[in-house]
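C-alpha cells please, single chain.
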Amino acid sequence: MKSFALNQYFDQFRWRTLGPQLINIVVQVILYTVVFWLVNRLAIFLIDRSFDTYMKSKRINKKRADTLHTLIRNTTRYVVVFFAIYTILSVLGFPIGTLIASAGIVTVIVGLGAQGIIRDVIAGFLILMEQQMEVGDNVIINDKTTGRVVAFGLRITTVKDANGGLNYITNSSITTVTNLSRSNLRVQIDVPYQEASQTTIVTKAIKQVNERLLPKHPEIVGRALIQGPSLLPDTHGLMVSVTFFVKNGDAANVKATFTTAYLTAIAQTETTD
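Here you go.
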C-alpha cells in the first residue's frame, strides 16, 4: 500500500511544469551572477584607469589619492553586491519590496547592527574629509595600535604594525589618531655615563659626532640641542641629552645611527685618554 501511495503521489506531481521552471530559475541565477561579476570587474577597471590618468595629469597628494581610490573601490563593490543579492532573491521569488517595507523586518535589521554600520560609514567619511589620516601614514590609533595605514574602507581601517600583523579597526571606534607622518618628529637621545669627571669627554664626543654626521643627514631639520648633565631616573647615573627634529619616516634610523656613533666616539675618546 505504501509503495502504491508513493507511486501515485509522484505520478500526480507536475514534473513537466516544475522541471522547466526550476531550470529557468537556475539559469537566471547563474546568468545574473556572471553579469554582476562582470559589472564589478568593469567598474573596478574603469576606476583604476581613471585614477591612473588623474594621477598623471594632476599634481595631488598621492596618499590622499590612494585613500580615495580605496574608498571608491570598496563603495562600488558594496553597491554591486547589494543589487546582485536583491536581483537573485527576486528571481527566487522572495517578496523583497514587502520585506523592506515591513516595519518588523526593518526593526530586526537595525537591531542586528545596521546602526553600527551607519556609524562606521559616517565616521569613515568624517575621517577622510578632515584628513586625519591617509593610506601610507604612520599612526597611533586610540593610544594603543601603532603602525602604517594600508587600507581605508567604509567600515574598517587596516593598520599594519611593526611585526607585520594587520589590525582591523572599525571607524566608529577610532577616538584618537596620532599621525606621525604629517610633521617633523622630535628625537631625543640620552647618552649615559657614570662619573661627573666624564662630562667634558662625553660632551666633546657628542659635538664631534654632530659636526661629522649632521651634514650627511638632510632629513634632520635644524640644529641639535645638547642638554645636561642630568640624572637618569632609574639608576641615578648621569646623562647628556641630544635633541633634534627629523622628517617623518626617518626618526628610527636617525636615532639608531647617532646613538651608535655617540657611544663609539665616547669609548674611543676614553681609550685615547
